[in-house]
């Protein structure tokens, strides 16, 4: 499961983030391996999950989008900002967004 905020621009990755992304390797919920190949292209897709935490410390995982590198260009990344529930402490966009 991989989570990403809507404020993060997926169209390009800042230079500070590239060393971390180079080493990403995990299995998605379908059992497919997700990683970046030698050309720094994403291999395998994944869902974008919003973890909603409740006052009693329970949580709910809500699928808010997906990344599918095999989909046609323009359909490879989708996110539904309207269904994201932000924690009350996230009240502004980060300085790098």
Automatic annotation (TrEMBL):
Any one Gene Ontology cellular component term annotated for this protein: plasma membrane
InterPro entries: GPCR_3_Ca_sens_rcpt-rel, Peripla_BP_I
Gene3D superfamilies on file: 3.40.50.2300
One Gene Ontology MF term: G protein-coupled receptor activity
PANTHER family (alphabetical): CALCIUM-SENSING RECEPTOR-RELATED (PTHR24061), G-PROTEIN COUPLED RECEPTORS FAMILY 3 PROFILE DOMAIN-CONTAINING PROTEIN (PTHR24061:SF599)
Protein name: G_PROTEIN_RECEP_F3_4 domain-containing protein
Species: Podarcis lilfordi (Lilford's wall lizard)
């Amino acid at each position: 499961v991989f989570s990403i905020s809507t404020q993060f621009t997926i169209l390009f990755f800042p230079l500070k983030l590239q060393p971390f992304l180079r080493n990403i390797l995990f299995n998605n919920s379908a059992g497919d391996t997700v990683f970046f190949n030698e050309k720094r292209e994403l291999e395998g897709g994944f869902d974008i999950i919003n973890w909603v935490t409740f006052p009693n410390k329970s949580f709910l995982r809500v699928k808010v989008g997906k990344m599918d590198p095999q989909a046609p260009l323009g359909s490879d990344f989708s996110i539904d900002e309207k269904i994201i529930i932000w924690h009350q402490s996230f009240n502004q966009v980060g300085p790098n967004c």
